[in-house]
């Protein structure tokens, strides 16, 4: 297990440090002593059978679930706890969360806001940045995800792929230090998966720090700098995509790759 | 029923205008205010502070299970013995607002529970909380999702306002009642009064349908 726990001290490039995270729901121990680091610009894919805890791990990172034990550090600031060691109050927590972008499986756009309003909401109302400046950036971000002609539409008028690209634009507009993707293409028609993956590939190439929970194995291999494979609440492999996909070390990983018909 | 009956009603139009004015103002003010009070009460159902939660639950339960007429008696005849004196119009207005705010809170609570969880979670993940969360995300969705129910409640307010004649508020019902007691033409009087209420309800339905149409593609 030593190779999996944090092997080196955090450096200035360490964006995310996860140390000894555990989480239970009743008797169900979903996460057991999870540790890993992410450097700036790294793309990590979290893989594993359903129920292995990968979505819960993602939700612990931005404190949507409060872990029972362990530390999360975002650029060396501890999530959920203020400098004094006391628990963060709601204001501190919300400011901390607004430094993390999250993309949801079912998009979770705010249905009463137009595309542009969805993208501008958090920068304007949470980060309290200048509206004019935010609007210019939001338009640029929407252009980047190929939705410049949909800005004034309501989400209900968009296809799934378009909705998810709005979801990504919404995350980018906050200038997040890290992006979390919770199965971003699982709810999409197969025809629409490509357009979303293409945007994510573009972000990765541009140096964004990303954690991706996905079932798209080919994509994970192409875009990731590292694969973290989880089973029953443990990280059991944490290696380069080539190593993981070509030479999985554990039986669990072999079984998993076989069952998702990789190769 | 003959034409002179209608002539009488026309001749008494001053009384009827007074009734219409009272009914319209009571319904409009209490209709709008009860939605706002409901919006303030609803978050308390989800408060972490248990006595607040209990208080709002008891208040709503008490209102929902007491007859409106009885509640009007409490406000108009009961409160003065504790030194709280409202005139009859204000008593009626207060009764309508308090009583129907409780219903509005219950309606809005069920709409709140119905909002897809991930939409609210996205709000949390993007740093919204407290008042900003309610103002920017929950509030608009609540209002839009509960429009048909709120419209129903407005119609209920219209009908309950007719009880206020009992404390001598001259509303539509009371106005026509006083006319028929002078001229002994109850059938025509009450039919015309009924048509006025019906028209008012049609107006409410028209507004509600318009807003519901606007809301349809904005509520997920």
UniProtKB/TrEMBL annotation, chain A:
Membrane topology: Peripheral membrane protein
The protein's name in its UniProt record: Amino acid ABC transporter ATP-binding protein
PROSITE patterns: ABC_TRANSPORTER_1, ABC_TRANSPORTER_2
GO molecular function, one term: ABC-type amino acid transporter activity
Recorded family membership: Belongs to the ABC transporter superfamily.
One protein family per Pfam: ABC_tran
Keywords: Amino-acid transport, ATP-binding, Cell inner membrane, Cell membrane, Membrane, Nucleotide-binding, Transport
UniProtKB/TrEMBL annotation, chain B:
Organism of this sequence: Marinobacter salinexigens
Stretches that traverse the bilayer: 22-46, 58-77, 89-108, 162-183, 195-215
PANTHER family, A to Z: L-CYSTINE TRANSPORT SYSTEM PERMEASE PROTEIN TCYL, MEMBRANE COMPONENT OF AMINO ACID ABC TRANSPORTER
Primary subcellular site in the record, as a coarse category: membrane
Pfam families: BPD_transp_1
Membrane-topology descriptor: Multi-pass membrane protein
One GO cellular component term: ATP-binding cassette (ABC) transporter complex
Keywords from the UniProt entry: Amino-acid transport, Cell membrane, Membrane, Transmembrane, Transmembrane helix, Transport
InterPro entries assigned to the protein according to its UniProt record, in alphabetical order: AA_ABC_transptr_permease_3TM, ArtM/GltK/GlnP/TcyL/YhdX-like, MetI-like, MetI-like_sf
Official protein name in the record: ABC transporter permease subunit
Domain ABC transmembrane type-1, chain residue ranges per copy: 20-208
Signal peptide segment: none
Subcellular location as annotated: Cell inner membrane; Cell membrane
Entry's family note: Belongs to the binding-protein-dependent transport system permease family. HisMQ subfamily.
GO-annotated molecular function: transmembrane transporter activity
GO biological process: amino acid transport
